[in-house]
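Just wondering, does anyone understand these C-alpha cells?
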Amino acid sequence: MQATFVFNILMENYIRIAIKVEDERVREELIARLSINGFDGFEEDEKILAAFIVEDKLNEQQLKSLLNAYSLTYTKTIIPPQNWNEVWESSFSPVVVGDFCAVRAHFHPAIATVKNEIIITPKMSFGTGHHATTYLMLQEMEHISFMGKRTADFGTGTGVLSIMAEKLGSTAIIAIDNDDWSIANAGENISQNNCRNIVLKKADEFSPLVKYGVILANINRNIILANLDGLVFGLERGGMLLLSGLLKQDEEVVLKECSNHNLFVLKTVERDNWIAILLQENN
C-alpha cells in the first residue's frame, strides 16, 4: 500500500473514505481536489483510494457532489484516536533525489552518496519528499542559483524547501504556511538542521513586503492562481519562480495565467502525473 499524503497528529476521530477507483489519472485528480477540501491523508492500493479527514471537517454533501462527477461511490469508516506520529515513524523511509540530496529522519544512518542531507522529525506535515511534488521541487532546486539571494517558501509544510534553500546559499528566507502544526513542525526541522537564515510566518496569502530572487510555491492550483499577483509582485527583476502542487492537466491554465503576468517558462518537469514549473520574471 502506498501512502500518498500523511496525517496531522490529532487525538480525535478520523473518517476513512474508501473509494473504488482504478484509473490512476482519476486518483491523482481526486487527491488534489480532496486535499483542498480538508482531507489530509491518503493511501492507495491497486483498486482503492482511501482518503482521511478529521471527523468534524467532513462535508459529506460536498464529497458526494465531487464523486458523482466521476460516477464513483464510497464507504465510510470511523477511526478512533491514535498516535499518528508512531504510525508514521514506523513506516518513514528516506527520500533520495539523485546524488543531490536526501531527506531522512534522525534515526536513519547518514547517506554518504548525496551532496546535501536534510534531517527531519517525521511528523505529519506535508512535504517530506515522499510526494511527487516535493520531490520535483527539490530536484529542480539543484539547478537554481540561491547563493546570496532572498528566498520565499509559500506553503512551507515541513520546512524542507526552506532548509534546502539555506544549504544552497540563500541568506534570507521567509517560510510561510497557514497551518499551526506545519509552522511548529517546520520550526523543529529548521532547528534540527542548524539553519539561521529562515523566518517562519503564519499567513493565508502571499503579500510580500520585499522582493525575492527565488520564490518557491508548492501548494495547489487554486491557491497559486489566487496568489499569482503577489508572487509576481514579489519577484526581483529576473527572479525565479518554482511552482508545484499541480497536476499535469493544470498545466495549460497555469501557463496561460503566468504568461498574462509576464512570466517566461523555463522548464516543466513531470513525475507520477504531477508537474513542477520553473518560470522567470520576463524583464
